[in-house]
Specification:
Elements: H1 10-16, E1 20-23, H2 25-32, E2 37-38, E3 42-45, E4 54-59, E5 64-70, H3 74-77, E6 85-92, H4 95-98, H5 100-103
Parallel strand pairs: 1-4
Antiparallel strand pairs: 1-3, 2-6, 4-5, 5-6
């Protein structure tokens, strides 16, 4: 069967997250509307984050916004183009409002 984490588990996932990403203010709303994070929007990333690791996405104030998959390792993030996707979107706190009818 399929297993999909929803945004309802964000507080638990954030508490124990090994890998974290901080998104810049100029890309925060884009992530909250369900878009991936590009290198331009990346504020910080946990050292030694491997490619394809699950990450919790925070704003620069440290508030958890959602989670995703690191499409680049920490080392590769420094080398890729500014428009390259570095985090693949999986879920965000805006999802609840967008999909409220389906989640209830």
């Amino acid at each position: 069967g399929n297993f999909r984490l929803t945004i309802h588990c964000l507080n638990y996932v954030a508490k124990y997250a090994k890998y974290k990403v901080w998104v810049k203010a100029n890309s925060e709303m884009s992530f909250l509307y369900g878009h991936h994070i590009t290198k331009v929007g990346l504020g910080r990333i946990t050292e030694n984050t491997p490619q394809y690791a699950g990450v919790v996405v925070y704003n620069m104030s440290g508030i958890p916004l959602g989670f995703g998959i690191a499409s680049q390792s920490t080392e590769l993030c420094a080398k890729v183009e500014p428009t390259a996707i570095v985090v693949l979107h999986q879920a965000d706190i805006g999802e609840y409002l967008r999909d409220e009818q389906e989640m209830n």
